[in-house]
User: What shape does this take?
Amino acid sequence: MKLFILILLTFTLISPKCTMKTKHILDYQPKVIETVKIEKINLELSESLNLEENEDFILVNVTSAAFMNDGNHFGVINGSKLAFYDSQTGKIVKVHIASTEFSDLIAKSGKTPYIDSNRRYRKEQSHFLSKEEYLEHGITEELADSFIKNRFSIVRNINDTIYASLTAYCPFVTSKSEKVYDNIPIIFKFSKDFEISENVVLELKKDKHAISRDFISTNKNLYSTVSSLYYEPINNSGFQSIPTVAKYDKKGNYLQTVSYQSPNYLTMGGKRLPWVAPRIVSVGDNVMMLYPDELTVFGENKKMFELQNLPFKNDSGFVYYQDYQRYCRSKEMQPEIDVMARLFPIKIMDAFESDNKLYPIILVWDKNKPMGFYYLIQEYTSDGKLLREVALDDEPENQIRQFAFNKYDKELVLFKKSKTSWTAEKWRMR
Amino acid sequence: MKMAILVIAMLVFANQTLFEQLKEKCELSKNEYLIVIFQTPGNCVKCFIEPMDLVELIKKNSLGINYKLMALVSVEREIELKVFQKENDWKHYMLVDDGNARKDLGAKGIAMMIILDSRGKIMAEFLPNQYDKNIEKAKKFVKSR
Assistant: This one.
């Protein structure tokens, strides 16, 4: 009998369906932290604008949006296209398509693929191919079309100018005639009549591969998110981590790494998390970085301040994440949103600056809410003092898909999608 | 009477399984196989190329094997299928995946492509980032026909 119980127990423990190791993760409930009532940000709905769609421009997802400084126009990114809309009528005024032609800007920029002795196809110096060189290297138009899928990523209003970044693909050929397609960010500057006026191709480095997840431009520099498969020492401190944000000169040449994966992200997976990318915001003289799961605002190679008055923490999520991933892999399933929401009940979705204040937009997973979550918008001074906040509920039939801030009219703009159409809801902030 | 027919038609449609809908959409006959790829517009280049390389391999070696190709695309509105079609120059069948397609067809939650026989039985299942394994599976499928 004892032997039977022992065997039964052993089988229970090694069962991949739900081991003792994962049970506490699957059942995990985040602890509620008591918050205090503070002054409320006043939001007043001023307009709901229907967004034009047509045969050539169907909005599948608004992945980024930014208002021009006069408040009369805004840009939205939808897949491979960047469209400018009239913010009074909701009509499209200009669409830029991320064509394969943009890849030529990389070849002509003088930037080169980096050498990495650990990668078979990066062992020798090479150059990015211009379009005229494609055919001599066996890249037909059909091949180029299937591999070069350029996409706009982010649109920003920086110092009253619209910029957008593009993930562009450009081929190079190894000495063994292998064709490799690198993805490289190009940052475009737009004129007031929505045309591209300048472009900058960011330099790629072996251990700092620029990726087009976010960027900003300050008076002197460009900052971009980067990804890496390599650890590097942080400021000769003896600690090592993986670069996440780098600083470039205005010509796109790499200067230095300014942010790394935090110890929490290293615990969560480090190299196995190639897409740890923060939102980069310039507030006063500070460049601030807000990561999706970290409840700390980071500056250039430093912690700045903690986000405050939040009803949960993500601490356990960072610890449990790897075990949960292993569990999902063993069951050949995608991580379940219900579990992820309990492991990481707080998600930093976006952030913007207005009048030298920082406004993070935070998604709070809360099972007591009808949709299981709500948005929390907070207002901080540049040195981290929490001033005000407001909670915002979503609607199941007309869901918030993107946020933008119209500095000119002081409006928070919610891009919402229903079963039939897209609207931009303008909420005046006071 | 008209109302009754409508209700019956609605009930029949509501009870139609996803596989039956796919079968009807591409008029799959008894001796044909259905290759289904799961797609999301805006996915990475690799996410489209990886299954299409396998389709190409099957096509090249499939003398005597009849199949139809279907993309189940994760979009919310029918009209958005056109974006997928245009971006990928898609000339085959496609339908909206409401997020439950893999489950409804009996596939794993991470499957990127499956091959079904005319009765809806999964004959081969391909998972992402398993390049060599997937090629083996595709070859095995072709050989076993």
